[in-house]
Design a protein that fits this description.
This protein is an alpha/beta fold and 192 residues long. Helices cover 41% and strands 14% of the residues. It has a six-stranded parallel beta sheet, with helices on both faces. Helix 2 packs parallel to helix 4.
């Protein structure tokens, strides 16, 4: 039986935060690298209007998600956690990409208890409804909001676009091994 329920963002957390960049570089003829992305709003990194970017993104979205590489060690860590915990993937992706998302999980051989595509970045109510014990995220304001509203720990995967200050309850990690180390040596010991 599962010990705890983990809420896990997909894009930039399970997938590499660079997943969009090859698609953006090709479509908009630029040469962005991850260090160029200082804000979550990608339109701040190169000359494009929000409308133009949104229209392109909606067309490119299925291909982007189908080809997103998984983060290093994410598979190994998540596979191990699945043996003891419930894995609830909660994503801002919309229902229009549900099939491609499920197919990606099959191709990555990633097991899960539930995948919820909510179509918005506001994950607080969804995390509350599913009684999440700890959350994994790459979007700064999501991490802060979830930690403060639900009083649960949130592991924030470090990227150039989420470097604002964080409150207690938001724990920065650089990779999935660090996330696992925190779960094993801090979270589970606190709960024992």
């Amino acid at each position: 039986m599962s010990n705890y329920r983990f809420g896990i963002d997909i894009d930039g957390t399970v997938t590499c935060p660079t997943s969009l960049l090859p698609h953006i570089n090709k479509a908009f003829e630029c040469n962005l690298v991850l260090d160029d992305i200082k804000e979550y709003d990608l339109t701040k990194a190169f000359p494009v209007t929000s409308d133009e970017f949104y229209k392109w993104f909606k067309k490119a979205e299925p291909e982007i998600y189908a080809t997103s590489p998984i983060q290093i060690d994410a598979h190994a860590v998540l596979t191990q956690w699945k043996k003891e915990h419930e894995l609830y993937f909660i994503s801002a992706r919309g229902h229009n990409v549900r099939d491609v998302t499920l197919q990606w999980f099959i191709e990555q051989n990633l097991e899960y208890d539930h995948i919820e595509l909510i179509g918005t970045h506001d994950k607080i109510q969804t995390a509350r409804n599913f009684e999440i014990d700890v959350f994994f995220e790459d979007k700064h304001d999501n991490a802060v909001g979830i930690a403060e509203e639900l009083n649960i720990p949130v592991l924030l995967f470090n990227t150039p676009y989420n470097q604002e200050a964080v409150p207690n309850g938001v724990i920065r990690v650089n990779n999935w091994r660090e996330a696992d180390n925190w779960i094993q040596h801090t979270f589970l010991k606190q709960k024992a």
